[in-house]
TrEMBL record:
InterPro entries in the cross-refs: Diverse_substrate_MTase, Methyltransf_11, SAM-dependent_MTases_sf
Taxonomic placement: Bacteria, Pseudomonadati, Pseudomonadota, Betaproteobacteria, Burkholderiales
Keyword Cytoplasm: no
One GO MF term: S-adenosylmethionine-dependent methyltransferase activity
Alphabetical UniProt keywords: Methyltransferase, Transferase
Stated name of the protein: Methyltransferase type 11 domain-containing protein
Length: 254
């Protein structure tokens, strides 16, 4: 199965779980996105890799229009139904990949992606598409899990992520994000960084991780080097902490 089909299938099967997930449904980063939206007068917003639509729901009250865009048709169905229940009539759903956006140049005042980019097959290509569809005075916001710069810790993170979710590609380091933003012609700054607690049983249940892979993740965390276990603050029940970051980016020169 190709990567994009794998992502669509994996998240189609878990759409409702992501709508109610505490990690995704709340957080100071959602409030920060609202604040950026309100810098503009009724902007056109693209929620790229929208998942269950939490960015869309946060931005819609302050926006002229919000396009919720995702690979998974089941996720988009959840977004459409939830938007209807919330009386958010300016949210429109559209299906497709991040690397090939079906929108004209300079279509959006804001492009926001939250906890999605680690599933993209080609992040540099997606960032170039963000640059293309962004208005010259617009802003892109990228929120995602961040890999440690230390290769030992990085390898452990990618391993447990892939065991949990076969559609995982990579959590990128801050240094990698900087290089990819630059290559796409986007000037950027890191606005915030924080830690997220992954409550183990909830984390694997949300993705419906098979039992054999859950056992493998536990074993990997149990046998990881002491400094890696300490970095991720691994707890007795295998819950652990990961880093997240909030970037703002604009077209270089604007």
């Amino acid at each position: 199965m190709k990567q994009q089909a794998l992502v669509a299938e994996q998240f189609g099967n878990t759409a409702v779980a992501y709508l109610t997930s505490a990690v995704h449904a709340g957080g100071a980063d959602l409030e920060a996105v609202k604040a950026v939206v309100q810098r503009y007068k009724t902007p056109a917003v693209l929620d790229l890799g929208c998942g269950a639509g939490h960015i869309s729901f946060s931005a819609a009250p302050f926006s002229a229009s919000v396009t919720a865009y995702d690979l998974s048709e089941q996720m988009l169905a959840v977004v459409a139904e939830s938007a209807k229940q919330r009386n958010l009539e300016n949210i429109h759903v559209r299906q497709g990949p991040a690397e090939k956006l079906p929108f004209p140049d300079a279509s959006f005042d804001m492009v926001v992606t939250r906890f999605s980019a680690h599933h993209w097959e080609d992040v540099p290509a997606a960032l170039k598409e963000i640059h293309r569809v962004l208005h010259p005075d617009g802003v892109a916001i990228v929120i995602d899990i961040i890999a440690p710069e230390n290769p030992l810790h990085d390898t452990t993170l990618q391993a447990v992520e892939l065991l949990r979710d076969a559609s995982h590609v990579r959590d990128y380091r801050v240094s990698e994000w900087a290089a990819m933003f630059d290559a796409a012609g986007l000037s950027h700054q890191q606005i915030d960084a924080w830690q997220l607690k992954m409550v183990f049983e909830e984390w694997v249940a949300r993705m419906r991780t098979p039992t054999d892979r859950v056992i493998a993740i536990r074993s990997l965390l149990d046998t990881a080097p002491e400094e890696t276990r300490r970095y991720f603050s691994v707890e007795n029940d295998h819950s652990f902490f990961i880093d997240a970051a909030f970037f703002e980016a604009r077209k270089a020169g604007h």
